[in-house]
Structures are given as structure tokens and as C-alpha cells.
Specification:
- By secondary structure, this protein is mainly beta.
- The chain is 9% helix and 51% strand.
- The strands form 2 sheets. It has a 4-stranded mixed beta sheet, with no helix packed on it. Strands 3-2-5-6 form a 4-stranded antiparallel beta sheet, with no helix packed on it.
- The longest helix is centred in the N-terminal third of the chain and has 10 residues, at 2-11.
Amino acid sequence: MRAALLACLVAGCAAHPPGAARIEARAENGEARVVRVDGRAVVGGAVAEVEPGRRRLGIYCRYNLSIMIGDARSVERELEVNLAPGARYRIEARMTPEPCTVTLVRDNP
């Protein structure tokens, strides 16, 4: 039974909310991803499937302003959004006006 559940999760057949909005995170100089939705932890990578409506996203951002690997920093940002059912979005993490300035951009009309 557990093996079947694990196989289903690995295959990507875990249920997504009906009409889920798809959010992909991109970072200008580093890494960004959605780590929380409405205060609940999200497991995943750079793409999240989120229930439509008004949401508060927690965005993890890792960046490096110098050439030294050990100088990398990370920060979390909060973003209030209103997601349309079935829409595709991308979170852009930019380095200006401050490191990891995040904005949500809708990819489809």
C-alpha cells in the first residue's frame, strides 16, 4: 500500500486543487522558490500549483553579490497575490532596488 502511494507521488499524480494556478519562480542572480502558501509549508521546487484566490506567498531567495561562493545570502519575502483559476504566473526575483525584490507576472491572459 505504501509502495503504491509512493509510486503515485513520484509519478506526479498527487491531487492538485481544482483550477490550480501554476507559479514558476525565476531568480535574476541566484535561486527563488515558493516555500509557503498562507503560512503552510510547500514541498517542491521552482514550480508550485496553488489554489486560486487571494493568497500570501512566502518566497525563499538565495543570491550572491560577490564572486566568492561563501558570500551567498538568503532571505524570505512575503507576497500578497490574487490568483485566477488555471492561470500561469512567474515570480521574478530581481537584484534591484534591493536583493530579491519579488514581483508576480501573469504569463497568460
